[in-house]
Every structure is written in C-alpha cells, then in structure tokens.
Amino acid sequence: MELSNEIMFRYRERRKRDLDECKAFLEHEKFNDIEKVGHQLKGNGATFGYPELSLLGKNLEVAARSHNHEALQKILKALSEWVVDLH
C-alpha cells in the first residue's frame, strides 16, 4: 500500500510530538502514558514502513510498564535520533 506524502509527513510530525510528550511524561513519572505511546508506536510503526519504530515502541512499552527510568531515557534518546534521521 502506497501512502501519500501528506500522510507520511503528518505521521512523522506526530512522532515528534510523541517524543516531546514522552519526555514530559518521564519527567513527571507518568509511566502509564508512556506505555500507551509505546503501544501505539509498536502497533503502527511497521504499518507505515518503519519496523524499527515498532521495536522502539515495544521497548518503550516494556520499560514504562516496569518503571525503568534508565531504560526509558535510552529508548527516548534512540527515538530522538530516529526522528532526526527522518528530516
């Protein structure tokens, strides 16, 4: 399935917002909110042609569920690098 440039642009922009939100969630220890974002990324990354994003989402979800602050910081750094590489 070929997705339009506009849809892909909006998808990538949403991932930037996810990153910013997760950073704020981590600062306030809102692990359930981080877990939800991770779950969404896990589910839709591969659908949009980004299997590596699905893996990051899975890791984010698991780390949030266990309240692993150190792992979450590492995963968010990797997500940040992924977002930067898209632009």
Provide a compact summary of the structure:
The chain has 87 residues and is an all-alpha fold. It has a single domain (5-86), classed as Up-down Bundle (Four Helix Bundle (Hemerythrin (Met), subunit A)).
General description of the model:
The protein has a single domain, classed as Four Helix Bundle (Hemerythrin (Met), subunit A) (Up-down Bundle). Helix content is 80%, strand content 0%. The protein contains 4 helices and no strands. α1 packs antiparallel against α2 (31-44), α2 runs antiparallel to α3 (51-65) and α3 packs antiparallel against α4.
Element layout with pairings:
Layout lengths: L4 H23 L3 H14 L6 H15 L3 H18 L1
Helix pairs in contact: 1-2, 1-4, 2-3, 3-4
Provide tags for this entry.
4 helices, Four Helix Bundle (Hemerythrin (Met), subunit A), 87 residues
